[in-house]
């Protein structure tokens, strides 16, 4: 088991946490007793932080490739997102921003 000191990302308090992991899998989180913001204590959200990193949850929520939201006319039909190629999306975004930006 590996322990890594870090910061809870949920709010501005920035409590110190110690993340327990086994290889790439996070197995637990506890408060860092040496951190001046929380002295080892965590609220409910912070103390359940590791539950957001279970294999079942990360498989559902982690994007493995870029998705592009369809335009309004296409939103009326499913699916609402389509797989996108990073380079093509970047080119489309630049074109759309340039349509709306006035260059003096
Ligand atoms: S443990 Fe709770 S109070 Fe501390 S940073 Fe996380 S959400 Fe905020």
Q: What proportion of the residues form beta strands (DSSP E)?
A: 25-35%
Give the CATH level 1 class of the largest domain: Alpha Beta
Helix segment tally: 4
Task: Assign an overall shape.
Answer: elongated
Q: Span from first to last CA?
A: 58 Å
Structural class: alpha+beta
Task: Tally the beta strands.
Answer: 5
SSE string: EEEHHEHEH
**Which molecules are bound in this entry?**
iron/sulfur cluster
CATH topology of the largest domain: Phosphorylase Kinase, domain 1
What would the keywords be for this entry?
binds iron/sulfur cluster; alpha+beta; 104 residues; Phosphorylase Kinase, domain 1; three-stranded antiparallel β-sheet; elongated; single chain
Give a short synopsis of this structure:
The chain is α+β, with helices and mostly antiparallel strands and 104 residues long.
Description:
With 104 residues, the chain is α+β, with helices and mostly antiparallel strands. It folds into two domains: 60 residues, Phosphorylase Kinase, domain 1, CATH 3.30.200; 34 residues, no CATH class. It contains four helices and five strands, in the order E-E-E-H-H-E-H-E-H. The chain is elongated and about 50 Å long. 11% of the residues are buried. Iron/sulfur cluster binds next to helix 1.
């Amino acid at each position: 088991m590996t322990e890594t000191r870090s910061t809870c990302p949920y709010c501005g308090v920035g409590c110190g946490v110690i993340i327990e992991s086994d290889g790439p899998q996070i197995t637990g989180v506890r408060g860092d007793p040496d951190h001046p913001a929380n002295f080892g204590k965590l609220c409910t959200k912070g103390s359940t932080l590791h539950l957001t990193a279970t294999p079942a949850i990360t498989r559902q929520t982690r994007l493995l490739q870029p998705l592009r939201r369809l335009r309004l006319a296409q939103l009326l039909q499913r699916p609402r997102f389509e797989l996108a190629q990073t380079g093509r999306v970047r080119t489309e975004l630049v074109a759309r921003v340039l349509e709306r930006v006035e260059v003096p």
